[in-house]
From TrEMBL:
GO terms for molecular function: ATP binding; metal ion binding. The keyword Nucleotide-binding applies. Keywords: ATP-binding, Nucleotide-binding. The keyword Glycosyltransferase does not apply. This is ATP-grasp domain-containing protein. Gene3D superfamilies: ATP-grasp fold, B domain (3.30.470.20). Residues 259-330 form the ATP-grasp domain.
Amino acid sequence: MGNIDWRNKFDTPIFFVTPDVKRGLGLEDVFPDFHIIVSVWDELIPVLRRKGVSIFCLEEIRPNNSLIMNSGQLLEEKAVLDYIKKESASAVSQIAFFKPSAKLDEIIKMKGFRKVGNDSLTNRYFENKVNMPTVLRGLAEYLLPGKIKRMAGFSFKEEAERFSLPLVVQFGFGWAGKNTYFIEKEDEFNLLKKRFPHTLAKVTSEIKAITVLNNCCLYHGQVLISPPALQINGFSLLSQNKAATCGRQWPAVLPDIRMEKEIKDISFRVGDIMNKNGFRGFFGLDFLIEENSGKIYLTEINPRLTASSSFFTYLEKATDRLPLLAYHYAEFSSVDLPLMTENGKDEIAGSQLSLRNRETFTKIKLPQNFGIYGFQDNKWRIKRADYNWKEIEKGEIIYFPQKRKLPESELARIETKMPAVSSSYRLAPWVDNLFSLNL
């Protein structure tokens, strides 16, 4: 990252609190006093510790207790608070997190910690997808046409006549495609009405489109924006839910050069609205680019760290950039950083895949150990147990197995410098090989 003296400006201890260690990564090897506090053991933990990363894992000291899968509950644990007190000495502890919650707000305030992130009310105001027409007044041309009301008030017949099938029903909140439903039949629609009669929803048509995302950061009121990435979804090999997010890929090769400029312009306008409403720091945006018309729609605001924030930070560091994530920490830590206009020379490139399809996952013999794998003698073979993005070779993959395969959760993750999706939006041959060869 070129002249890296800026990192020493972060002289107050930072504690990233998260059940999953991967959520807290990105700058763990940059900041001088950075700690990750997790509840769940992961094979990545000893690998990171060997590199000097400070990690507190609750499961190590309480192996037989029920796991805590909530950052707020994790932060109120006595063992966690004792660790923070010991490592902070007399300094004010800074608490970072992936997603805000009322519980985190309460504990951080009660303990006198400094919050590295927005409060939960601000987060929910911008995250509510059904509320976007109200929040983004003046950007109506970039929002999908649809109808909003409580589910009990919808009629399948009326909406089927208004919009072509399948109908897309979307609730205000949902993660990785959850709470987005593609409805072909009236009985499916009525079942949703019965389950969620009072839930506010938006009904739209499905459009044939690719999904693009970017990461942004509001730093001192300025909107900093990443290049766009292709969001990977709609592949049955990766997930049975076609709305589920199954990865992302930089760069996004868009059909028309003007699309990147338009996405950037929309991002600036959204960031300006968020700034005027008190939002600070990191956020992400999702877009649809309609296949036939090329029209761009803004579909989602993620007003927090994103599913790609850690991975994207590694990609930035590999190209000698000052990461967006550093500006997020700087915004809440009262640290001044130089604004990097020509930020890095090489193109940001890399792919991250989430394997979510239990049916295809159980039919193949994936390795159940974390590591870097290379293709050799018609097999994927483990080469080393390490996590160093800069040293990954072009034909290698990093495999992260998820030991606890919870319902609807990610089963495994793969990161690589290779493209995972072709320009014609097909899975690359090496991805298909993962599901036809033993690793």
